[in-house]
Amino acid sequence: MSDIRRALHSWVEDAEAFGIEDVVCPASATPEVGVGAEAEASAPSLAAIAEEVAACTLCGLSETRTRVVPGQGDAGARIMFVGEAPGADEDRQGLAFVGRAGQLLTKMIVAMGFDREEVFIANVLKCRPPANRDPAPAEVACCLPFLKRQIALIEPEILVALGGHAMKNLLQTEASVGRMRGRVHDYDGTPLVVTYHPAFLLRSPDMKRAAWEDLQLVLRTLGLTPPARD
Ligand code: URA
Is there an atom of ligand 1 within 6 Å of 101 CB? Predict the structure, then answer.
């Protein structure tokens, strides 16, 4: 690891240790390494963003990842789901939400009357945090611009924030998912509905009913009639 990168990585750790709220991506200000996340929003396609993600070394996760997970789905999707970060299965396959939580997300999407291939699925972080720890603020600061550029290109009719990390970083709030779910928020002009993360729903199946209400709200916001469900 180069000296400059070592310094940047220790900065990330310091930022975590001191709980800095308004964190910027340390590498993006450094011409030598600032190639990815802050590159202007001129990428002509999702594939170009995925290539940038694949080459990204802005944070230390680039050293521990197996594969990057840029996100996948229909570039013209009406609905875009945003999760937290890849887990072990996603890190192995380079695809978002393909593990147990992903299987539940697929069921949720199908229950809405959509195919997985018709929506777009992405995460706040494009690389797996070791041992699935929470994303560090500086990692988010480096990676979030990729997600924002994906959203700007796809222009979904609605965003679904899956869990607290997606919600917090898209809506800039410290509120709980429980407080923010059940209504339509605004992300830069795009309606956004918050619901529980599928991994949480696997641990707390009682909350699936509330999540289904959120997904029904997504459908109604799109002008669709939610399918009847027993
Ligand atoms: N959890 C997430 O937030 N994203 C994935 O891609 C997988 C699990």
Answer: yes
Q: What's the pLDDT band for 16 if we cut at 50, 70, 90?
A: very low
Q: For the structural domain made of 3-221, what CATH number should be given?
A: 3.40.470.10
The confidence score (pLDDT) of residue 3 equals 44
136 touches ligand 1 (CB under 6 Å): no
Phi and psi at 195, nearest 5°, equal: -145, 180
What residue spans define the domains of the chain?
3-221
**Which residues are CB-contacts of 88 (< 8 A; sequence separation ≥ 6)?**
99, 128, 132
pLDDT at 142 over 60: yes
**Distance (Å) of CA 80 to CA 47, 153, 158, 205:** 17, 12, 7, 23
Closest atom, ligand 1, to C-alpha of 96: 6
Residue 109: which residues within 8 A CB-CB, separation 6 or more?
Answer: 81, 115, 116, 119
Q: pTM value?
A: 0.87
Does the C-beta of 90 come closer than 6 Å to ligand 1?
yes
Confirm or reject: Cβ of 196 under 6 Å from ligand 1. Answer: no
Q: Determine the pLDDT at residue 44.
A: 76
Is the distance from the beta carbon of residue 164 to the nearest atom of ligand 1 less than 6 Å?
no
Residue 188 one-letter amino acid: D
Bin 211: left if φ > 0, else alpha if -120 < ψ < 50, else beta: alpha
Strand, coil or helix: what is 151?
helix
Q: Which of 90, 91, 92, 196 to mutate to test the pocket of ligand 1 (most atoms within 8 A of CB)?
A: 90
Cβ of 135 less than 6 Å from ligand 1: no
